[in-house]
């Protein structure tokens, strides 16, 4: 605190000061001291910037289906993690589950609220729509464009529309063949032996002379049409199913019909009956587990399936026989294809950002994607033609003794980044990408049926329909059982279901 100065003290000080000033005036002047030159100022050094401490890596876990758990899985995982640590500061734990148990085990994990990060989800395994309904999957609508922009922007925009549920994206599709391109896939040796020229085939009936030749020439050793498959491929008949019944793929009114009211369905069953009577189908269907046993044994000649570019070599890998194919479906359609193979992100993920950055990497970085799909270069595969990106097995390894050969590129990311396994495949990915990008979306693309209001009726309909499965193989004469079929479907609630599906479609269409 400052001391207070009194008036008397102030005057005393003033007198003393005057004397001092007088003495100073009489004193000799001092020699002036030279003024030193101003010092040159040193530039100010910026303060050292603190280096931000690197965050610990995010640990991701990924669950997916596999035909077998391979012994070198850990080696591949370790190599992936070297890249992931450098690129996105993360690691990943691969958790394959054999396909036969995959959906059941994921249902248990989800019901228990187990924490994980990424999973395979689809409309046929670990059901996508059920996972969304149950709140298992994270909303990726804003996250993917932000953290996986190259991947997100590289897909046909229609694909994102297809996978949306109530306007939001809950899974990231792996690009493979999405366009519906149904057609005959035939054993090449039998095609050549019995003079099949697919260039001259424009409709299913054009396959009849070749099948007649097989029936006569093979004397029962080969049944022309694969067991377990049939002619009812809806898109080939220009139809689509919105969850029940059928709609014409380009019908602007999107009117739902019972199958028995559709002329195309009846035409399909009529042709099936004709072919069964001609001996093109097995007299009895074997158990589903025996289908590929028949194919590998050379007991069947052809089937209708996705006749995509390169499918002939894929069939050789799975059956031992090279196949030839032709797309009969016109136009190519985009329906629910993108939902068939996707990555989902669990709502309890350690890091949504890290998951999306992983999706960017696995869908856009060829070496990283092929590491997951094919394994380690030199150990699991070698270059056959590096310029054309064709690979093969190292000496001593085969498909049977391979320590890492998932053979499911379609499950892990953009299949069009996969290395080819045969020079005859070269160019197939570019051709398939064009099919995807030019496919015509069906009128119900993006519509998802809410099954809750009609779940009991749908279950009853499914049970009733199973009684008549043999209509699709010709074993059951559709004309003789059609009235019984219709009666049982109606008793199960078919009319109520059709009405509800139409109601939901009309509301969806109005809000689009």
Task: Describe this protein's structure.
With 512 residues, the chain is α/β, with parallel strands linked by helices. It folds into 3 domains: 206 residues, D-Maltodextrin-Binding Protein, domain 2 (3-Layer(aba) Sandwich), CATH 3.40.190; 156 residues, 3-Layer(aba) Sandwich (D-Maltodextrin-Binding Protein, domain 2); 60 residues, no CATH class. 39% of the residues lie in helices and 13% in strands. It has 19 helices and 18 strands. The strands form 6 sheets. The protein has a 5-stranded mixed sheet with strand order 2-1-3-15-6. Strand 16 and strand 17 form a beta hairpin. Helix 17 packs antiparallel against helix 18. The N terminus is likely disordered.
Characteristics:
single chain; about 500 residues; alpha/beta; D-Maltodextrin-Binding Protein, domain 2; 5-stranded mixed sheet; 4-stranded mixed sheet; about 40% helix; disordered N terminus
Q: Could you say what the CATH topology of the largest domain is called?
A: D-Maltodextrin-Binding Protein, domain 2
Strand order of the largest sheet: 2-1-3-15-6
The CATH class of the largest domain is identified as Alpha Beta
Q: Which percent range fits the helix content?
A: 25-40%
- What is the typical, i.e. mean, pLDDT? 90
| Multimer state | single chain
- Span between N and C termini? 78 Å
How many extended strands?
Answer: 18
Strand content: 5-15%
Helical segment tally? 19
Using the 3D structure, state the CATH architecture of the largest domain: 3-Layer(aba) Sandwich
Major sheet: size, sense and barrel closure? 5 strands, mixed
Indicate the overall shape: globular
- CATH homologous superfamily label of the largest domain: Periplasmic binding protein-like II
